[in-house]
User: Which sequence fits this backbone?
């Protein structure tokens, strides 16, 4: 994984990184390989606003769950097996 919030600055609004304010990850991000620790909080390496990513369903970049919609149009999350995850990360 590349940049580890190198040069990031903590501000009142969130962490300023590459000109973008990053918000901490949400509960559903837990276990995702894209999360990154910066100082006392965890942020997403792919999205500045993880909460927005989950607001409309499931994050399509999540590495820990596979989201799909059921017939009612509700989001279904299927945890990915660790072995699958490792293979996918390559
Ligand atoms: S990629 Fe999605 S699930 Fe993973 S940390 Fe970022 S917002 Fe959360």
Assistant:
């Amino acid at each position: 994984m590349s940049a580890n919030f190198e040069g990031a600055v903590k501000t009142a609004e969130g962490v300023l990184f590459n000109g973008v304010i990053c918000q901490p990850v949400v509960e559903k991000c837990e276990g995702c390989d894209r999360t990154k620790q910066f100082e006392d909080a965890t942020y997403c390496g792919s999205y500045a606003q993880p909460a927005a990513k989950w607001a409309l369903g499931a994050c399509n970049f999540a590495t820990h769950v596979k989201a799909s919609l059921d017939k009612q149009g509700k989001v279904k999350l299927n945890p990915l097996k660790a072995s699958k995850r490792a293979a996918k990360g390559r």
Notes: Residues 82-88 form the longest helix (7 residues). The chain has a mean pLDDT of 85.
